[in-house]
TrEMBL record:
Purpose: Fluoride-specific ion channel. Important for reducing fluoride concentration in the cell, thus reducing its toxicity.
Membrane topology annotation: Multi-pass membrane protein
Keyword Membrane listed: yes
Name of encoding gene: crcB
Origin: domain of life: Bacteria
Entry-linked PANTHER family: FLUORIDE EXPORT PROTEIN 1-RELATED
Name by which UniProt lists this protein: Fluoride-specific ion channel FluC
Pfam families, per the entry: CRCB
Keywords, comma-separated and alphabetical: Cell inner membrane, Cell membrane, Ion channel, Ion transport, Membrane, Metal-binding, Sodium, Transmembrane, Transmembrane helix, Transport
Subcellular location: Cell membrane
Reaction equation(s) it catalyzes: fluoride(in) = fluoride(out)
């Protein structure tokens, strides 16, 4: 059973992550008008970089409580990143016949987020040496 402390950690982190998602997505889409949903891509890139950094930090600092980790990863990053939004935006691009944009969006989100998660992880490990 999930504890009340875990639920509070996820809920409070989720409020922060969702607010950050709204602000980042809005700022990117306002300043970078493009056929691709760049706001979604930006939050997915940022979230992927940060999750890589956090997992490296967790690897190096085992004293953090599970509640802190849950607050940061499941709460903040879970609400910040937008994989379900990415999925529906890609579907809408395909449905509209914008195949090149749809596949570019899918490839950038898939490979870009994996690359940035790895960069974040390795960056923190390298800095900690």
């Amino acid at each position: 059973m999930t504890s009340l402390a875990t639920i509070i950690a996820v809920a409070s982190g989720g409020a922060i992550g969702a607010t950050l998602r709204l602000l980042i997505n809005g700022a990117v889409n306002k300043h970078f008008v493009h056929a691709l949903p760049l706001g979604t891509l930006a939050v997915n890139f940022i979230g992927s970089l940060i999750i890589g950094m956090l997992f490296a930090y967790f690897h190096l600092n085992t004293s953090l409580t599970p509640h802190v980790k849950t607050f940061l990863v499941t709460g903040i990053l879970g609400a910040l990143t937008t994989y379900s939004t990415f999925a529906i935006e890609s579907f809408f691009l395909l449905e509209a016949g914008h195949y090149l944009h749809a596949f570019a969006n899918m490839a950038l989100n898939l490979f870009g987020t994996i690359l940035l998660a790895g960069i974040g992880y390795l960056l923190i490990l390298q800095i900690s040496k």
